[in-house]
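Many introductory courses stop at the sequence. We go one step further.
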Amino acid sequence: MPDISAYLVAKSDQLNALDLVGKSMTIHITEVRVPGGEQPVHVYFQGDQGKPWKPNKGMKRVLSLGWGRETDNWVGKQCTLFCEPTVKWGGKEVGGIQVSHMSDIPGPLQTVLALSKSSRKPYVVQPLTAAQRPAAELSSDDQARLLADAQRAAENGVEAFRAFYVLPEVKPHRAVLEPKLADFQKTAQQADAETVDTHPTPEQLAAAERAEQTTTEARDAEVMDSDSTAAPEGLS
């Protein structure tokens, strides 16, 4: 059946609450501009088609609480937006964009939103899990290189792969790695197992040294026994 989603999008220079009616959207932030004015903060994201999200004061406070007031720190992070129909403007419910999930927060983010000058309500933002994050836009060649780098890291063991996985330049693209994550973990574990097999433990080294010492002592004892039973030179 034909999809009419494209015809439901509001004509505007920004992302609108109407664009999110009946759905949510997880965005990957690429740039934040602060031109001032009535809507001073413009959040650009992958696939925005030149229509940034201009968060209201409540959502700016939420983002600042989770990621800090320096907007450069927001770039590369992700959040899930939805339309909250009860948001008021001029005393009337007109709907507005709010945040339900954010990446890079350690746990649920709790704050309070002002509904009016005399009314406030608790507001909670949940952490955005890796499974909920959209795949960052990478070319097929870049994705192939990322997967190859991950494979090389896994071949060096669990710790090497963990170090690779938390790199700042890798974090925005983890969704590319997710389908093969179990394979990478298995490879890393196998690499560690092979390292253990080829590199003796301290206990194994100590046992080998004791065995070598025992062999040396036994050899020395045999030499001493043979010397004691040999005839003195010139009497044979």
